[in-house]
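Summary of Year 1 activities. Much of the first year was spent building the evaluation harness for sequence design. The harness presents a backbone, in tokenized form, and records the residue chosen at every position. We chose the following record to illustrate the format because it has been used consistently in internal testing since the harness was completed.
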């Protein structure tokens, strides 16, 4: 059986060469690593020159103005608007998570993830999803809520969704895969897909990433 998935251009940014080598070796065959960088400055240069689709980005990096991974996102994104950033770190500290997500990263997963998990997360980010390690999803959303200091406000848009659609929406917005939502709600994956399509249509959104942003703004998670 052959894998017909198209190659996904990826840049690995981490200041530890042994980690970069190990990650490169563990990534799926359809993840094409176009380069590696070990500092903020190297990362910005390579993103600008190579324009990878996804950057696997450590949050703690030397160089630049001391802003680490978040600085890479804010400085490199304007030069390569089609490039998406996925934070990959050992840290689950609130400051690290919030800083890089607010800078524009599309997700945050830990280095305890397997090569298969990182590959899947990279593909999902490339498709427009917001991706978080399951262990971090609730923490990330709590961190955003803590920063805003606001509680969820009633929103007439939410009334457009059925109770089941709201349940699916919350899980999808937290970064759960369709199969995880299906298992959690005891419904089929096909039913999950149907609900997600309905939710996006009713809320006039185009992707899971937009759905996550929408839910975060309204403190619905």
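For this record, the design step produced the sequence shown next.
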């Amino acid at each position: 059986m052959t894998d017909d998935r198209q190659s996904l251009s990826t840049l690995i940014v981490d200041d530890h060469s042994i980690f970069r080598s190990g990650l490169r070796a563990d990534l799926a065959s359809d993840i094409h690593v176009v380069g590696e960088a070990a500092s903020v400055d190297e990362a910005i240069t390579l993103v600008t020159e190579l324009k990878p689709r996804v950057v696997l980005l450590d949050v703690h990096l030397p160089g630049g103005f001391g802003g680490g991974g978040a600085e890479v996102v804010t400085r490199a994104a304007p030069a390569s608007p089609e490039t998406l950033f996925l934070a990959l770190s050992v840290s689950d500290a609130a400051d690290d998570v919030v800083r890089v997500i607010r800078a524009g990263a599309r997700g945050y997963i830990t280095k305890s993830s397997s090569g298969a998990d990182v590959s899947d997360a990279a593909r999902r980010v490339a498709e427009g999803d917001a991706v978080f390690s399951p262990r971090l999803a609730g923490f990330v959303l709590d961190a955003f809520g803590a920063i805003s200091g606001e509680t969820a406000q009633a929103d007439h848009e939410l009334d457009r969704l059925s109770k089941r659609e709201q349940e699916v929406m919350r899980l999808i917005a937290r970064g759960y895969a369709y199969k995880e939502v299906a298992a959690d709600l005891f419904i089929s994956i096909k039913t999950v897909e149907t609900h997600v399509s309905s939710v996006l249509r009713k809320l006039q959104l185009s992707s899971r990433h937009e759905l996550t942003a929408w839910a975060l703004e309204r403190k619905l998670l």
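The chain has ten helices and six strands. Quantitative recovery figures across the full test set are reported in Table 2.
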